[in-house]
Amino acid sequence: MKICIQITYTFILMLFGTVLGWAQELEEEPRIQFTARAFGNDFFQEIYFYNANDEREAIEFDPYGRTRVYAVPEDQSEIAFLRVFQDEQGREQEETIAVGDIESIESRAFLVVIANRDSLRNLPYTVFVADESPGEFEAGHLRFLNLAVPPLLARVGERTLTLEPGFGGDRRGALRICGAYGR
Fold this sequence. Notes:
Elements: H1 2-26, E1 31-39, E2 47-50, E3 56-59, E4 70-73, E5 78-86, E6 92-101, E7 108-114, E8 126-131, E9 141-146, E10 152-156, E11 159-163, E12 166-172
Parallel strand pairs: 1-7
Antiparallel strand pairs: 1-4, 2-3, 5-6, 7-8, 9-12, 10-11
C-alpha cells in the first residue's frame, strides 16, 4: 500500500512538472530571429548583444561555419552590438560599436555588419538590415548589397538601376536575366 501511494505521488509530481513546463513555453515572448555576417578588414571577434533572455551573448562571424540564428524580443526596435573591456579600476565596461534598426522587421532579419563608420550614430561599424520574414524575400527576388558609400548605378541589359547604400532595394521580377541559353 505504501509503495502504491509513493508511485501515485511521484506520478502526480511528474505530471504537475510537465504541465508547468508547457505553461512556461506558452508564455514565452514572441521573438525576432536574425542571422549576421560581417565584411571588411577588421577584427570581428568578441562582439556581443543582448538576446531574447536579456543575457549578453557573443555573436559569431565565421565565414566557414554555418550561420547561427539569434533571437531578440519582438518589441525591440534596435539591436546594439557591444565590445566588453576593463576600465582603469578593473571594472567590466560595455561600449556600443554598432546598432541595427529592426523596427520594421516582422519575424526574421539578415544583418550585415561592415567596417565603415556609422556617421549617423557616430559608431565604428555600420549595420545594414534586410527583412527576411515570410513573404518578404522569396523566389523571384534579387537582393543587391551596395557596400560603397555613394549610390551605384547598375546596368542590366537596357535597364539602369540605382542601388542605394546597404540593401539597395529588392527587385521582384524587375529584371529578366538571360544567359547563354536564353534571350
